[in-house]
Amino acid sequence: MIKRRQLLKGGAIGAAGLAAGCECGAPVGGAAVPGSIESRELKMVTTWPQDFPGLGTMAERTAQFITEMSGGALRVRVFAAGELVGAFESFDAVSNGAADIYHGAEYYWVGKSPAFAFFTAVPFGMTANEIMAWTEFGGGQELWDELSARFNIKPFAAGNTGHQMGGWFKREINSLEDMRGLKVRMPGLGGEVLRRIGASAVALSGGEIYQALQSGAIDGTEWVGPWNDLAFGFYREAKYYYWPGFHEPGAQLGVGVNLDLWNGLTLQEKSIIEGACHRANHLSIAEYIHHNATALDQLINDHGVELRQMPDDVMAALARESKNVLEETAQTDDITGRIFESFKASMARSQVWSGISDEPYMKIRREIFSL
């Protein structure tokens, strides 16, 4: 017999099959019968602006998948940041049962535990493929479950933006000295790394960034990548667009379900939610690769954005301080240390493989098909 875990690895196929094999549309207010799903409405709060491309729509898509795969029995109503609770209040709302599900970035919760950062992205950390491998097969999910359970939450990966850009700056960065004193929007451990090299890191939700850049409250910002950055129009306020990003090489986004609610669900209901998250995660990676490439072309050719590479001395300083910050973070407590060691071991294995597969292949392909 196929083990449940193997079935769920099939993502939407496995969960959709489970949903299709039952009578899923119990009437509102009616009692569930054997083989059916209890009809209920679930509230999803998010950290994203309403209908925002990629991030906001990723949350809405996850909610839609849960609803569709349950035959409409589990109806998920989505609240954008600020509609029910503020962006950074989503975690607490789900933890205490004021909402049922959140969709956001786990590094927003580092005030609860610094270990949460490892499940979104850390400086010079994992790519999208690597963090997916760690979460699904390298022990990451089990550690994430343990950490989140302390806050009455059951977590899942439900999106990934891929490699993010270094950010937008109002003036050129020619050396490490040019970074000193700059006010840059960057959350998570990346923000702490910026502080170590002399910049000031500012934590702002997505909806607050443009105004802060426009008013001069910040001198630069990272957000996501070309697709989302184009939607926010940062090019109107900052001329220089820097690469590569050091802080989020594969930013995984998460769904958190209230643990009391989760524990009360049937196996079928749990499988639908998990399968919907897998499906959303898969689609988001493909979506970002496609739209980032298209948007980058628009930024350069339609809006005159100047693409710049971060100077070597800046990247070297960022790498040095990133190592220090991660090692210090690992000393916070036992679970953070165990998560860091698991993360580091999985990344080391991935690096050996990618070093003889992806990296040399991409180099040769660029030489052959240079544009």
TrEMBL record:
Q: Which domain of life is it from?
A: Bacteria
Q: Looking at the keywords, is Transport present?
A: no
For substrate, which residues are the binding ones? 164, 185, 222, 248
Per UniProt, Na(+) binds at: 223
Is the keyword Metal-binding assigned to this protein? Answer: yes
- From the UniProt record, give one GO term of the biological process aspect: transmembrane transport
GO terms for CC?
Answer: tripartite ATP-independent periplasmic transporter complex
InterPro entries the record matches: DctP_fam (IPR018389), SBP_TakP-like (IPR026289), TAT_signal (IPR006311), TRAP_DctP_sf (IPR038404)
Q: Per UniProt, what is one GO molecular function of this protein?
A: metal ion binding
Q: Provide the alphabetized UniProt keywords.
A: Metal-binding, Signal
PANTHER family from the UniProt entry: EXTRACYTOPLASMIC SOLUTE RECEPTOR PROTEIN, PTHR33376
Check the record and name the NCBIfam families matching this protein. Answer: TRAP_S1 (NF037995)
What is the protein name for this chain? Answer: TRAP transporter substrate-binding protein
Q: What organism does the UniProt record list as the source?
A: Hyphococcus flavus
